[in-house]
Design a protein that fits this description.
Structural class: alpha/beta
Largest sheet: 8 strands, mixed
Helix content: 40-55%
CATH topology of one domain: Aspartate Aminotransferase, domain 2
CATH architecture of one domain: 3-Layer(aba) Sandwich
Distance between the termini: 26 Å
CATH superfamily of one domain: Type I PLP-dependent aspartate aminotransferase-like (Major domain)
Strand content: 5-15%
Radius of gyration: 26 Å
Shape: globular
Strand order of the largest sheet: 4-11-10-9-8-5-6-7
């Protein structure tokens, strides 16, 4: 039987197939016991994988809209009762899809279920009883800046004063402000590098130079390039996971001095290191005031809090304050005070220790599952720290196909190629393990392994 199915460009293909066939059955455009198109033929017609069609058919069958006959295919079920299909809420279907089928291997996610809500709410209720009607100072609440400076001295070996700490509402707003402060200077960014950083540079139309990354981390820019700002992730290079060597750190600091340039050190997930001792911040070596340190609570607490911070070299403080003289804080004063108390009471360090243990277990679960279900044909990169790994795919399985196959069986993950500006690879995917539970990690790997292996066996 011929059936017309229209697929959108960015939609989830199996879901759209499922929805349109289901609607055709409910509207009686497909009659009882009519045979559905063969999986291969429908896949060719829609230019999708057979697995995508199979997942849609299996979902229809599980909900009773069709049945299968061995070696004959799938047939429309006979539905006796009158179906008021117009009352079926599309939003409910979306929720069901998200909670029952979708496994979130996207990068940059955290396990929100492990957040200490009880302690946080206790502190929040206390702050609400106080007089907190006014805005926070633009630079941020002193109490929070003090706690951040103290924490960085203890945890990252970074000697700084509260006066050098500036509170922002997230990485991109912080980076935007710094770039404007430096008045359209040419900037270098690691290649591959953080796509959200590059989007800020693109929006500002800054001259942007890709700087290669090797096994020692971000390379030193060529002396003839007019770079006055360099964005880098030394503790855990994004996305490769490499750690910048001490020799390379010293080379970059010497480059900054000679070129009268500055380095933006994004220390985005340095707390989550699973092999060896914690890596000191690049700023720890900086005695000449050439490094601007970026930190955030998005990975260690909750992304929705929207609290990040900048450590500005002392020599630039006055100019930076003058530049932002008429700005207002856009970070909740109450949230800042609660975060300050959370750190002061020792709850922050305890939470990080707990999360490090949890994420280490998730990382091990993911690597073991990948090894069990995918074998030696899939290499793993960057597994010593952070909340994601990169999987190198074997010949015959490209990045776009691997992601589409994963999506067709209800698993979301990220592509690696957008992180590159020069030579874009097409054989790597990024798998984040912050959000899913252990069971979801195992189930997700089984699903993608089945889909990928089926594709490779054709």
């Amino acid at each position: 039987m011929e059936i017309q199915i229209l697929l959108s460009e960015n939609g989830i293909k199996y879901k759209e197939i499922y929805e349109q066939i289901r609607l055709a059955i409910l509207e009686k455009r497909l009659t009882a016991h009519a045979r559905l198109p063969a999986k291969r033929r429908l896949a060719e017609q829609l230019n999708v994988s057979i697995i995508t069609v199979q997942v849609a058919y299996e979902q229809l069958q599980s909900e009773g809209y069709c049945y299968s006959a061995e070696r004959r295919g799938y047939f429309v079920s006979e539905i006796q009762d009158e179906m008021h299909y117009s009352q079926i809420n599309a939003l409910d279907l979306e929720k069901r899809d998200q909670h029952e089928f979708l496994i979130n291997f996207k990068n940059g996610q955290i396990d929100a279920s492990a957040f200490p809500y009880k302690q946080w709410n206790r502190l929040y209720r206390k702050e609400l009883k106080e007089s907190n009607a006014s805005n926070a100072p633009w630079q941020g609440e002193y109490s929070l800046r003090f706690q951040i400076a103290h924490y960085l001295q203890q945890a990252r070996g970074l000697a700084c004063q509260p006066e050098q700490v500036y509170i922002f509402s997230g990485f991109q707003q912080q980076l935007l402000n710094v770039c404007l402060f430096f008045k359209r200077k040419a900037i270098g960014i690691e290649d591959p590098g953080f796509i959200r950083a590059r989007s800020v540079f693109d929006q500002l139309q800054l001259p942007c130079y890709p700087i290669s990354v090797d096994e020692e981390g971000c390379c030193v820019p060529d002396a003839d390039e007019p770079i006055k700002l360099l964005y880098t992730t030394p503790a855990h290079q994004y996305p490769t996971g490499s750690i910048m060597s001490i020799a390379r750190r010293i080379e970059l600091l010497n480059w900054a001095i000679k070129q009268n340039a500055y380095i933006i050190e994004d220390d985005y997930d340095s707390e989550f290191r699973y092999k060896g001792a914690p890596i000191p911040a690049l700023s720890h070596l900086d005695s000449t005031g050439r490094v601007l340190y970026f930190g955030t609570f998005s990975k260690t607490l909750l992304p929705s809090l929207r609290i990040s911070y900048l450590i500005m070299p002392a020599a630039l403080q006055q100019d930076f304050k003058k530049f932002n003289a008429y700005q207002k804080s856009n970070v909740s004063r109450i949230d800042q005070q609660v975060a300050s108390k959370f750190i002061e009471e020792g709850l922050y360090t305890s939470h990080i220790a707990k999360m490090r243990t949890l994420y280490r277990a998730k990382r091990s679960c993911l690597i073991e599952s990948l090894s069990k279900h995918l074998g030696d044909h899939f290499d793993i990169i960057g597994d010593t720290a952070g909340l994601h790994i990169i999987v190198t795919l074997p010949e015959g399985l490209k990045e776009a196909m691997a992601i589409e196959l994963a999506k067709s069986c209800g698993v979301e993950m990220d592509a690696v190629s957008p992180m590159y500006q020069l030579q874009k690879p097409n054989h790597q995917v990024m798998i984040g393990y912050g959000a899913p539970s252990m069971d979801e990690i195992q189930k997700g790997v089984q699903l993608i392994a089945k889909a990928w292996k089926s594709h490779l066996s054709k």
